[in-house]
Amino acid sequence: MSAPRPKPLPDVKAPDTAGFYEAAKRHSLVVQKCNNCGEMRFPPLPICSNCWSSDQDWAEIEPTGTVWSWVVYHRALEPSFADEIPYAVGRVKTTAGPTFTVRLNIPIEEIEIDMPVTATFKDVNDEVSLLEFSKA
Amino acid sequence: MDIRGKVAIVGVGHSEQGTLPGRSPEQLSIEAIKSALDDAKLTKEQLDGLITCKSVQGGNADVQVGPLFGLSPQYSQTLDYGTCNFSLHLAVQAILTGMAETICLVYGANARSGRFNFSASAPNLAGASGFVHIAGQGAMALQRHKKKFGTTDEQFGMFAVSEREWARLNPLAIFQDPLTIEDYLAKPYMVEPMRREDVTMISDGGVALIVTSAERAKDFPNKPIYILGMAEQSEIRGDYFDDYLMRPFLKKSGEQVWRNTGLKPSDIDILYIQDPTAMWDLQMVEHYGFVPEGEGGPWVAEGHTRPGGSLPLNTNGGQLSESYMWGWLHIVEAVRQLRGTVEPQRQVPNPELAMYCSTMTFMKGACSIIGTHQ
Question: Could you tell me if residue B123 is inside a domain?
Fold first, then answer.
């Protein structure tokens, strides 16, 4: 038997996203906020797409949102997820604005578009905590 | 600038389609070019332009095809994601501005035998969440369409079913097994609410077109098929735009082409839509105005897109059933239908106007209207 294939993990050290994953370790949901015009976004960008300012910080947001849409993987298109089939992924619009496409930690039969959800975090290892959304 | 009828397609060709191990994208491109030159009764020396489309797995840039092509044409370009539509538009612009007169457009890929990984996960949050493969994005858009408009599986499945019905009339098509709506509904979900039958296959092959000015087109043996209208619209902000998966920006591509040509959707005899998933069919019949937004489901369920229907769609079988050539075979089929030279069992009676709509993922859209008369 070969060792199970490792599941893909985000690069938590990448300079542009490290702040997000540091906050995730603390189970805090942050997005990038422009200090010049106030625009909030995720994924982060090196400059603000609205005003082109590079003066920006990570800002904690309300960990709430609604399900924009969702899907269920019944086939392990990425083989390392075979032990989790079926699993649900949702695109969630946060109350603050930015959207996230991540796991829904909700029984599949209860998932609905527009349902309110709240951010939760799954501690994968000492370095990585993954954002998920659960029932509000 | 009115481009109507000033440029024509005078040659079309392709390689075998399927699993073709040992042949590079560039080699498959040359096979397709030879086929298109034979169709147009041209030699390669008579081309003064080449526009290649990068292969889905990389490669096939003009400078990679060039050494095999064996000539250096005056005008040479590569588009990252031609889908044939963007490539055709570039060719029209080059010909009308005098950069070249007779251009070969080509695509080649060996994604199947090269085992290109369509489920590669990005090292980001979505990838770590298992949101992989184009079926994920297609299913996400379909789920929202179902909720907003009441679209059902029975309705949506008719895109895959009608494309398979066409494929069974096309000897080139790779998927030939019968598929009824009952068969479709009995299949399991792959990425719910999408089934395997709603998603493209992966295949190897090459496709080429020869395009020239309308004046020169009259010297060629084939009935010229004229470019009558073309339009593009980008949404290059990508997923920073909340509704990107629904691709409402495609409406603007439609508005342009109908305004510029004075035509309307009901004038189109045959429709072609590049279809990595059947969701692209649903979105484009709505956004290009063939049906009002939200009514694509009930409409397709009425059978309009099937053989004998009022708006034949992807009469080659599309990417769901014929072959995965980034939409390039769609326009080859459109040209042959307009010439009246496809196998009799799938020839649409006397078509004069065909339209081809395609997208570069969720970031750009393009359409072309081609026809038998200037």
Answer: no
| Residue in A48, A49, A77 to test binding to B, most B beta-carbons within 10 Å | A77
- The distance of A2 to chain B (nearest Cα, Å) reads 21
Residue A81 to residue A73: CA distance in whole angstroms: 10
Structural domain boundaries, residue B177: 133-200+228-374
User: Do the domain assignments include residue B223?
Assistant: no
Whether B363 maps to a domain, the answer reads yes
Do B288 and B370 belong together in one domain? yes
Q: Is residue A64 part of a domain?
A: yes
Q: Are residues B212 and B162 in the same domain?
A: no
Residue of A11, A43, A78 lying closest to B130 (CB–CB)? A78
> Does any domain span residue B328?
yes
**Strand order across the beta sheet in which B75-79 lies:** B75-79, B49-53, B102-110, B204-213, B7-14, B225-234, B364-371, B353-360, B270-273
CA B1 from chain centre, in angstroms, equals 25
Per-residue model confidence as pLDDT tens digits over B193-243: 999 999 999 999 999 999 999 999 999 999 999 999 999 999 998 888 888
Residues of B in CB contact (< 8 Å) with A are: 118-119, 121, 123-133, 135-136, 139-141, 143-144, 147, 188-194, 237, 239-240, 242, 245
What pLDDT does residue B57 have?
82
Predicted model pTM? 0.96
Contact B110, B20 (CB under 8 A): yes
Residues 6+ positions from A39 with CB-CB distance below 8 Å: A33, A48, A49, A50, A51
Number of domains chain A contains: 1
B128:A9 CB<8 A: yes
Taking the mean position of all CA atoms in its chain, how far away is CA B23?
Answer: 23
Q: Please tell me the distance in Å from A53's CA to the nearest CA on chain B.
A: 17
Give the residue on A whose Cα is nearest the Cα of B196: A75
- What is the ipTM score, two decimals? 0.95
Give the range of the structural domain holding residue A118, as residue numbers without chain letter. Answer: 18-135
The verdict on B38 and B178 lying in the same domain is no
Looking at residue A2, what is its pLDDT?
58
Number of domains in chain B: 2
A99 with B188: Cβ contact below 8 A: no
Q: Note the pLDDT tens digit of each residue in A42-73.
A: 999 999 999 999 999 999 999 999 999 999 99
Asked whether residue B57 falls in the same domain as residue B158, the answer is no
